[in-house]
């Protein structure tokens, strides 16, 4: 699928990776709903995009993705405004080991809910036109992250859910492809959370170790994650893929090998 002329919805769109993906989608000719809980950042983001692309190309919707009604409403408003939905990026995420239940809610529960809401609109066996869903995970969703155990659990969950629902979409002929993206460290405001006790709780004492890891592995530019997202949108064969993005290897894919069959 090409993004040109398509309608997209991106959560956590006001800054960081979400914002980079929004710009890439606009450059590729899509129109889109910018969904974010931060009204000030959202308005600023839209105002600056309007100057470059025109106000008709985006719609800012203030929404806390953990609020079921607000999230439902964001999908409803998007379809009401643009007439359809073709591309969904569940990107909003937080790093909060202290309020770990919130981390699960934002990073995993809301991604699952967003995926179901997107499928309800897009899946062909429900009267939709088909589409693409991209769920943002992390390299911490594939490997243990000693100083971010709950963040890591939430991102492992995103991969497990995305691969499973992708398999179901294929079996059920949904006409919707669902993939996940796992970046290493990316240069966004999220990285500042590592230096905050209110985010890290007891793990705050390890902040320098995380900073050393950043120095060792390097930090990616958000534009590379946006490029990976476009690759997944355009690759009509990808479904259930787990894209990894690192400084050493760039964009590549996790290979899971032969699936083990569990006896039941
Ligand atoms: N920055 C990294 O190093 C990195 C690495 C791998 C994966 N990721 C993932 O990429 C995604 C984007 O992260 P980022 O680095 O751009 O973070 P960021 O903090 O820069 O931006 C996140 C955006 O999401 C919004 N948001 C947070 N909670 C929300 C909620 N409940 N409802 C609606 N919007 C909400 C914020 O307002 C913000 O605009 C996240 O899922 C994150 O886990 C980030």
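-> sequence recovered:
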């Amino acid at each position: 699928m090409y993004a040109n002329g398509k309608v997209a919805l991106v959560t956590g769109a006001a800054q960081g990776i979400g914002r980079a993906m929004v710009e890439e989608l606009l450059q590729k000719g899509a129109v889109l709903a910018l969904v974010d809980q931060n009204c000030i950042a959202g308005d600023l983001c839209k105002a600056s995009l309007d100057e470059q692309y025109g106000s008709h190309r985006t719609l800012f919707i203030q929404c806390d993705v953990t609020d079921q009604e607000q999230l439902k409403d964001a999908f409803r408003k998007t379809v009401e405004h643009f007439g359809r939905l073709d591309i969904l990026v569940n990107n909003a995420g937080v790093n909060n080991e202290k309020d770990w239940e919130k981390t699960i809610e934002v990073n995993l529960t809301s991604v699952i809910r967003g995926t179901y809401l997107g499928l309800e609109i897009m899946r062909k066996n429900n009267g939709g036109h088909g589409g693409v869903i991209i769920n943002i995970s992390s390299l911490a969703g594939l490997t243990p992250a000693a100083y971010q155990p709950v963040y890591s659990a939430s991102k492992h969950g995103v991969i497990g859910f995305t691969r499973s629902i992708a398999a179901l979409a294929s079996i059920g002929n949904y006409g919707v492809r669902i993939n996940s993206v796992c970046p290493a460290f990316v240069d966004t405001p999220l990285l500042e959370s590592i230096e905050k006790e209110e985010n890290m709780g007891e793990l705050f004492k390890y902040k320098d170790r995380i900073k050393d890891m950043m120095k060792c592995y390097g930090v990616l530019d958000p534009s590379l994650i946006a490029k990976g997202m476009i690759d997944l949108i355009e690759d009509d064969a990808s479904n259930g893929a787990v894209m990894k993005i690192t400084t050493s290897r760039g964009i590549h894919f996790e290979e899971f090998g032969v699936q083990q069959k569990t006896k039941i």
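The longest helix spans residues 100-122.
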